[in-house]
Amino acid sequence: MRDFTLTQYRNLISAFLRAGYTVMPFADWCDCREEGRVLILRHDVDLRPANSLRVAQLEHELGVRSSFYFRAVPESFSPAVIRAIAELGHEIGYHYEDLSLLRGNRDEAIIHFQDCLVSLRRFYPVRTICMHGAPATAYDGRDLWRKTPDGGHAYNYHDYGIVGEPYFDIDFSRFFYLTDTGRRWDGWKVSVRDKVPEQELWLKRGWVFRSTDDIISALDNRTSAFAGQQPLMLTTHPQRWTDSTLAWTAELLAQSLKNMVKRPLVWLKES
To answer: Where would you tag: which of 12, 137, 195, 245 has the fewest CB atoms within 10 A of its CB?
Structure first.
């Protein structure tokens, strides 16, 4: 079976349900801080928002809710799709990249951040945010919430009615993290920013998956990262998941090219 199809995505979420995981959006987890066999299910809507609606509909059929993070750019931000996904009971969040869009100007970036929240909150009461990696730029969006090297002011997202940002509010020493970054499940090798330090430890433990079938097999057999009670967060990029042969092939080719470009960027960042 081809990987990264909607059919395979349905199989993946069904496997988590069979394995006894409680699936929830990130905001729900921020409210309860539940641990054990919990799956925080998150989607980064980088491109092709219509694909995200199909994923949201599929999850609704399975009886699960998740988080969809929209960028403030035309290729992601679709009011019609946002409304439709919210009406299915899913969470809507802001996939922020304000520092990149404002070329590192922190004061302008925080104004842009507030304006984008206002725009999104016309359709949903946004309570969580998640950075967009923006690998082609030199700016890490999360730096908006950190002091500058010279001790300059750090903004606080809680001041804007935000209850959580996964890279700050999830303790990955207790959570396992799966992401389809790079159109592969071991994509941190070609990821500039969507990674956490604990991935090196998971690698040593053998908690590494290349295909969705690998994850499903481990879930069904309660092996690897799924043997115990460790909670986890799963991130997908819905533009990757399609049953259309033409769109599937186009995404495969485009992502393969992106991975080739990102490899030297990762090497430069880590060297």
So the answer is: 245
Residue 125's CB is within 10 A of a number of other CB atoms, namely 11
6-270: which CATH topology?
TIM Barrel (3.20.20)
Number of neighbouring beta carbons within 10 Å of residue 83: 13
Tens digits of residue pLDDT in 54-97: 999 999 999 999 999 999 999 999 999 999 999 999 999 999 99
Calculate the dihedral angle through the C-alpha atoms of 168, 102, 263, 177, rounding to the nearest 10 degrees.
20
Sequence-distant (6+) residues with CB within 8 A of 43 are 52, 55, 66, 67, 68, 69, 235, 236, 237, 238
Better-predicted residue by pLDDT, 199 or 145: 145
Domain ranges of the chain: 6-270
The answer to whether 178 and 233 are in contact (CB under 8 A) is yes
- As given in the structure block, the two tokens for residue 142 are 């999360």
Residue 5: other Cβ atoms inside 10 A: 18
**Mode of pairing for the β-strands spanning 232-236 and 176-179:** parallel
- Residue 236 parent element (H or E): strand 232-236
Q: How far apart are CA 253 and CA 69, in angstroms?
A: 24
The span from the CA of 15 to the CA of 23, in Å, is 12
